[in-house]
Amino acid sequence: MQWSQQVQSCQHRHPCSWHANNGVIRLVFCCSCWIFNCTFSISTIFTKIWVLEHILLLETYTKDSIPALHKIRKYLVEATEEASIAYNKAVTRLREYQGVDPHFDNIARQYHDIVKKLENMQWTIHQVEMDLKRLPDNTTS
């Protein structure tokens, strides 16, 4: 009986029964069956796992995928560097603001609130102007 047949004929209730179509996962979960049945030695199992790992690596890293992976890595390195620079700038600005004045936070909050109120007032004025433009002209009466 080959190892793939033994994996599929496992009668034990292991999590492997959830992965009926995946021989690799079943191989890992059904190792106890093989140990109890003394079908394979541990070194044989590890050798098969090693072979499966290398087959997976061979299929993953093809002539087409390697240049694409290099581009992705380059992009990720650059994005990480940019994010790190932006983070460091933000930390520096925060420290500068914290060192200005103990009351700076209150002043900044008040300024923010005033700006928001002004924006709301401008929006209200704009809406009133739009409503006035839509009214019919009653000057002919």
Provide structural commentary:
The structure is a single chain. Among the domains are: 58 residues, no CATH class; 33 residues. It starts with a helix and ends in a 7-residue tail after the last helix. With 141 residues, the chain is mostly helical. It contains six helices and no strands. The protein is 75% helix and 0% strand.
State the helical fraction.
over 70%
Kindly report how far apart the N and C termini lie: 105 Å
Number of β-strand runs: 0
Overall pLDDT metric: 76
**SSE string:** HHHHHH
Question: What general outline do the C-alpha atoms trace?
Answer: elongated
Largest sheet: none
Secondary structure tally, helices: 6
- Approximately what portion of the residues adopt beta-strand conformation? under 5%
Q: What is the C-alpha radius of gyration, as a whole number of Å? A: 35 Å
Low-confidence stretches at least 5 residues in length (pLDDT < 50)?
1-8, 13-28, 34-38
Question: Which structural category fits the helices and strands?
Answer: mainly alpha
Keywords:
microtubule minus-end binding; HAUS4; mainly alpha; AUGMIN subunit 4-like; 141 residues; single chain; 0% strand
Short overview:
With 141 residues, the protein is mostly helical. It has helices spanning 3-8, 23-29, 31-37, 42-60, 65-100, 104-134. GO terms for molecular function: microtubule minus-end binding.
